[in-house]
Inverse folding.
């Protein structure tokens, strides 16, 4: 990266990273390249494999543009794309383990990641130990000579524990283990994993990078030392995202900064309003001073996104259904990071092993979209009225 690019501010990088209009007849956006076969001009060229692109699965100019932009934004050596966030996660993990190895995974991890560890990895002879996400440097006590990696997610995407990533990374590296971090919540704008000791970063680009709930995509960004094993596994597994999804991610990337500021502003305002509601037992948001991990968030992060949680006071199934079923602006659906507000009940008590989830009542995960904050408050207020009426 040139010195000029290195010192550009995030907003400028979002607008310009990965773009080369001169290469595409002056068009601002890299076109969508659809295709499998790439022709070679001569027999000798084919034997030498001397072209930048050789086969559609191995990359196109559209893929290269997004990979280049994301590597620059994240501060990594190289980026690879995958068809979903989960395939990015599983590919990154598989790149560093073999039968007989041991890994450490945050107890607050994205549930499909846990399912992969408990099924596929177990079948392959890789053992998983789940750790308390607030363990910090104490994770060293869980390391063994077989421990090959630590998989972290900070904050957790349901219960929002903030991890001491520098301390965890120092302990992992001291034992010769890699550190992989799911950075989807913070995006490359609000947390810089490589500055805090992480070796490989994964994202569900489906969320904030795409930003419009219309594409599935995963991202793996590596340090220089970690690039070769991940690239080899990625190639062997034959991963390639759809060209339209890549293009939609490139388009979404250009507005990531302005969208995140709005998500952050709305989520914080909504969290404050909810904290005053009698129906709410507590708000779980890392950027709030009452969050147990707030000091770590304040030390390591430069912002917060639109995803947080609340715990209600005790309520019946019927009352909760009355509240949620009548919402007009908050949709009930999986994923998050799009322009639309979402709300989803969750209960992780059945799939935690290193920690215990205790809640006063039903827990709800909220994604604050781009709607007007007063309209969102009114929608929830009407929901609380239904909750009270059905209790």
């Amino acid at each position: 990266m040139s010195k000029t690019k290195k010192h550009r501010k995030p907003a400028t990088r979002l607008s310009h990273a990965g773009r080369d209009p001169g290469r595409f007849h002056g068009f601002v956006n890299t076109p969508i390249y659809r295709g499998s076969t790439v022709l070679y001009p001569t027999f000798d060229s084919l034997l030498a494999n001397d072209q930048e692109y050789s086969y559609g699965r191995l990359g196109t100019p559209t893929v290269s543009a997004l990979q280049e932009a994301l590597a620059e934004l994240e501060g990594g050596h190289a980026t690879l794309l995958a068809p979903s966030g989960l395939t990015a996660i599983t590919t990154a993990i598989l790149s560093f383990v073999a039968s007989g190895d041991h890994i450490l995974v945050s107890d607050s991890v994205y549930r499909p990641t846990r399912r992969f560890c408990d099924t596929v990895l177990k079948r392959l002879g890789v053992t998983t130990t789940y750790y308390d996400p607030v363990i910090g440097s104490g994770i060293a006590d869980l390391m063994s000579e077989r421990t090959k990696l630590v998989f972290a997610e900070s904050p957790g995407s349901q219960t929002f524990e903030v991890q001491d990533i520098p301390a965890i990374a120092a302990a992992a590296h001291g034992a010769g283990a890699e550190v992989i971090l799911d950075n989807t919540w913070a995006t490359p704008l609000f947390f810089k994993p490589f500055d805090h000791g992480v070796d490989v970063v994964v994202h569900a680009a489906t969320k904030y990078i795409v930003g419009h709930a219309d594409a599935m995509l995963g991202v793996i960004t590596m340090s220089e030392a970690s690039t070769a094993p991940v690239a080899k596994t990625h190639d062997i597994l034959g991963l390639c995202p759809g060209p339209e999804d890549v293009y939609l991610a490139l388009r979404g990337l250009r507005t990531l900064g302005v969208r995140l500021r709005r998500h952050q502003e709305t989520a914080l305002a909504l969290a404050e309003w909810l904290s005053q509601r009698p129906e709410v037992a507590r708000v779980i948001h890392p950027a709030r001073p009452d969050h147990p991990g707030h000091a770590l968030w304040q030390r390591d992060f430069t912002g917060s996104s639109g995803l947080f949680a609340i715990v209600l006071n005790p309520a019946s199934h019927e009352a909760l259904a009355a509240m949620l079923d009548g919402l007009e602006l908050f949709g009930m659906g999986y994923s998050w990071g799009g322009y639309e507000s979402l709300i989803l009940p969750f209960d992780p008590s059945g799939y935690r092993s290193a920690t215990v989830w205790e809640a006063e009542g039903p827990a709800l995960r909220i994604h604050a979209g781009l709607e007007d904050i007063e309209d969102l408050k009114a929608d929830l207020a009407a929901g609380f009225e239904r909750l009270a009426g059905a209790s």
Summary: The chain has a mean pLDDT of 95.
